[in-house]
């Protein structure tokens, strides 16, 4: 008996990392001991005070019931205060913030709320694969826009305006950009807000990397009038070392929060209260938390530069975020060839840039989520097992 999957899944493949991690797991079962430099899952813990709040709240007898679909008031207030303190953006915690079980969830919620068959969505190439997947699951069509190194991975809005935008309902952008680490300028944010207003396109900004190796965190919502046309996603996964906790947020004007909640409330319930209150504590930490975190990442980034240098890759030292993005040397046909060479000969996994779109095929990405000694070990393996 064969039951066909729904149409919405027929062009949606299993996530690349999901498949690759299975392969690596099989290699490890056979004794390979692969060093995984692929995934941006922080290996450092949250602040001790965050753990303490979680433990204290979880030990209480009255914190285990269902929670509000809109999140605990204490968490929404902490999110609003955090936006005000670091981004200089004023949001109403009761009407303009929606806590999420990770910002990846928000990508699907937004697409399912606003897209349907016949609609189109602009997605970055290279870009986070979840944007394209969510658009397709919603039944809409993806329209990739190419990002180029010579333009600092910023979209050419003038070129986009010369295309047919009549069916485009929303546009995904993501700065600091993943995978390239490029920063957006305030000028670009102003222009993309104007672009969205002119063409009646919802601008969806995914912003989880703004505190990592970046001295000046930016929010697109700091642009005057941005709430008229923009939604911003954010996350504690990277900035607070809480990836497995699944805590994110969606910021938008009240009408959009209410619209997205119509979908989200049919998919899940509120997060565990102890988790929400611990997340509120994480958002209340002072700037020294981010300073200390970035000292660790600076040390690791220097070691990743050494790996890239050994592989003959070239990279921009102005990039920020949780990864290093680099162009592969011409001796390799593409990023997959380099990634496979390194994996099968040195048992080190490096992400091929091609998984982020055709514009990433000549690039690779290394995560900073590995301890310095692990990065040293990876370099030694490459020197010992890989022919230059």
Uncertain parts: none
Oligomeric state of shown chains: single chain
**Order of strands, widest sheet:** 2-8-7-6-5-3-4
Mean pLDDT: 94
Helices and strands, in order, run as: HEHHEHEHEHEHEEEHHHEEHEEEH
Shape: globular
Q: What is the end-to-end distance? A: 52 Å
Q: What is the radius of gyration?
A: 21 Å
SS summary, helix count: 12
Largest sheet: 7 strands, mixed
**Structural classification:** alpha/beta
The strand count comes to 13
Strand content: 5-15%
Helix content: 25-40%
Structural overview:
- The strands form three sheets. This protein has a seven-stranded mixed beta sheet with strand order 2-8-7-6-5-3-4, sandwiched between helices. The chain has a four-stranded antiparallel beta sheet with strand order 9-10-13-12, covered by helices on one side.
- The model has no long low-confidence stretch (mean pLDDT 94).
- α3 packs parallel to α9 (273-284), α4 (103-114) packs parallel to α5 and α10 runs parallel beside α12.
- 39% of the residues lie in helices and 14% in strands.
- With 388 residues, it is an alpha/beta fold.
- It has helices at residues 16-29, 48-58, 73-87, 103-114, 129-137, 157-161, 186-199, 254-264, 273-284, 288-311, 335-346, 372-385; strands spanning 35-36, 97-100, 120-125, 141-146, 168-173, 202-206, 230-235, 248-251, 314-315, 323-327, 348-349, 351-352, 363-367.
- The chain is built from twelve helices and 13 strands.
- The protein is globular.
